[in-house]
Amino acid sequence: xxxxxxxxxxxxxxxxxxxxxxxxxxxxxxxxxxxxxxxxxxxxxxxxxxxxxxxxxxxxxxxxxxxxxxxxxxxxxxxxxxxxxxxxxxxxxxxxxxxxxxxxxxxxxxxxxxxxxxxxxxxxxxxxxxxxxxxxxxxxxxxxxxxxxxxxxxxxxxxxxxxxxxxxxxxxxxxxxxxxxxxxxxxxxxxxxxxxxxxxxxxxxxxxxxxxxxxxxxxxxxxxxxxxxxxxxxxxxxxxxxxxxxxxxxxxxxxxxxxxxxxxxxxxxxxxxxxxxxxxxxxxxxxxxxxxxxxxxxxxxxxxxxxxxxxxxxxxxxxxxxxxxxxxxxxxxxxxxxxxxxxxxxxxxxxxxxxxxxxxxxxxxxxxxxxxxxxxx
Length: 377
What we know:
Elements: E1 14-18, H1 23-39, E2 44-50, H2 54-61, E3 65-69, H3 85-103, E4 107-110, H4 116-125, E5 130-133, H5 141-146, E6 152-155, E7 169-171, H6 187-194, E8 201-205, H7 213-221, H8 223-228, E9 232-237, H9 240-249, E10 258-261, H10 267-273, E11 276-279, H11 283-292, E12 296-298, H12 308-317, E13 323-324, H13 330-342, H14 345-356, H15 363-376
Parallel strand pairs: 1-2, 1-4, 2-3, 4-5, 5-6, 6-7, 8-9, 8-11, 9-10, 11-12, 12-13
C-alpha cells in the first residue's frame, strides 16, 4: 500500500469517475474505483455516465452511486440525428457543474466515452485535478480534445506523443478486473457455474458487452462444424441485442455441447474455462487476454473510429501473439481457424505465451499512484 500524506487524510477524499457507453470504457473506471477504495476506504466515490448506457446499470450493481448525463456521441452515419447534440452538450456541461459543486471531488478521472467530456472539461475549468486514461493505440476524439486540459494522461502504449502533450503522458497499462488474476484455481468452480464438463476443451466466444453481429453470424454459419467437434464445448456470449434472434434461429434448440448467454458477468469464470477465445479486438479485451494468457482469434470490428481495433490486433499479430481474421472474411475463415488451432496444441501454447508478454498486471495500481500524486500536490 502507498504511504499517505497526512494532510490528505484530514478532509474526506472524494473521487468522481466518468467513462462508459461500452464496457471498454466502463470496466477500466470500475477497476480504478475498486483500487481507490482499497487505498482510501473512507473516500466517497461517484460515477457519472450517459443515460441509457451500460454504466447506468452496472455501477449500482458494483455498489457505486451514479449520476446520468443526457449526452450522446456524434453520429457520422446519420447527420440528421445530430440536431439535438448542441442542446445535449450544453445541458450536460451545466449538469456537470452542479455535480462538481455538490460533490467537491479531490480528483476527477475519465476513461473515455462521451459522458466523460462534459465532466472532465468542466472540472479542468474549475481547476479540479483531473486525469484521463486512454486504452487504445488510436485515441478517441473525447480524450484527444481533453488532453490539453487535464493534469495527466495515462496510456497503454509508448509513442503517444503524437496525440497528447508529452509532459502529461504516463505509460501505465490498461486497468483490468482484479478477479482475473490467478485463474487456475477457479476452473472446477467455473465448470459447475456454467454447467459445463471439466473433461472437455472449451471455446469461449465473446462479442463484447453489446455483442458482435459478424462473430455471431459466423458461429451460426459454422454450427454443424462446432457440433461435430468431439471433446469440445462452447460458451457463447451473444450480446443482449442478438440473444433472442439467435435462439429463434436455433429454433430454441441449443446444441448439447453449448451454453448460450446474452451477457457474462463472471468473466473470471469464463476465462478460467477457456482453452481458446474468439472475440473483437477492443483494448480492454486484449489487456485481459494478456493477463489470463489465452490463445485468441481476433475479428476486429470495422465499425469503430479510425479502425482502431484492427490496429490493436496488428500490434499482437506482429509478435505472433494472436490470430487475426478480417471482419468480411469471418464467415469462411473462422471455423477452419478454430478447428486448426484445437488440433495444434503447440501453436496454441505459442500464442498464449506470446500474448502474456503484453500483460501489465500492475496497471490499475500505476494509475492510482498518479491519482495519489495529484492529491498530494
